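Here's my example:
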Amino acid sequence: MVELLDIYDDSLTKIGVKARPDVHRDGDWHCVFHCWVIYRDENAQDWVIVQKRAPNKATFPNYLDVSAAGHYEAGETMQDGIREVQEELGLILTFDDLVHVGKRVSFARYGALIDREIADVFFYICDQPLTDYHYQHEELAGLVAVNIDTGLRLFSDEVETISAPAVGLETDEISISRKDFIPTPDEYFYKTLILARRCLNGEKHLLI
């Protein structure tokens, strides 16, 4: 069955419903859900969980990406987005468990695919061990935990690679570089690391 999405004009006013392949063909504005899983461990180290996209994904296969993400189906709201966290990561949560950090507007082109999207961005604080995740193997190749300290050094170009614990991949610790993450023009991952630390420090009213 073809997935239907709500579409919007340049003022982000809803103008109709369209099949997902046609939305990406025509470059219509549409809404998506992003949730970053973050935590502070017993050694006071801060972490962000990222997913490694499956090798069969249409865009950016095998790249590192937001912990859980997906499109809202037509008629859905932000509250429905927790479905993506449950499906992709196997986590049971409620919408009230999430910390909203605003909307991210982005535009990208991947060959013939035109992607204009508005993402509702959230944090979810969860210190579950990486090995306890029951992630969706059809969508994810595995999961990686990025230490925020070393991640900030990586995205500040202080180092070229960092080591990170992983599950589902060839080894339980991998070396990653900036090139392993989906490229973004707005330093999305770097900003996420900064905001994640502030969130774990108890700050409110964060904005991506």
